[in-house]
Design a protein that fits this description.
The protein is an alpha/beta fold. It has helices spanning about 1-5, 20-30, 50-60, 75-85, 100, 105-110; strands at about 40, 65-70, 90-95. The protein is built from 6 helices and 3 strands; from the N terminus they run ααβαβαβαα. Strands 1-2-3 form a 3-stranded parallel sheet, sandwiched between helices.
């Protein structure tokens, strides 16, 4: 909804838990799947943590240049420092109000859509 709100044109691929995310990373690493430009990770994933997903993602040569955004309910400075150290490009705290949540699309749009050619 946040991406649609800002007319972001992209193919969205959603993975529901950390184990599936690690499987997708392996598929990308083996060349069986294309590399995304942007990866959004929640720290509190079921089965495997967002920290583990981020660590594996940054150890994958094919994904080293992908932009990684952490979207989390935590505002802990420790969490922010840890994901920054692991290679996240941006940390966004999940807002509680829907209208604030929809604004996230505007923050992500430049990461997803290439700039217009001149």
């Amino acid at each position: 909804m946040a991406l649609e709100e800002h007319n972001v044109s992209c193919e969205l691929f959603v993975v529901g838990d950390g184990e599936k995310a690690l499987s997708v990373i392996r598929e990308i690493d083996s060349g069986d799947m294309t590399c995304p430009r942007l990866v959004i990770i929640d720290l509190n994933l079921p089965k495997k943590s967002g920290y583990e997903v981020l660590r594996n993602l940054r150890n994958c040569a094919a994904l080293r240049d992908a932009t990684v955004v952490i979207l989390s309910s935590s505002g802990s400075p420790k969490d922010i420092a840890q994901v920054t150290q692991l290679g996240a490009n941006r940390y966004i705290r999940k807002p509680s109000a829907l209208e604030e949540y929809l604004k996230i699309g505007a923050l992500l749009k430049p990461e997803i859509e290439p700039p217009p050619s001149r």
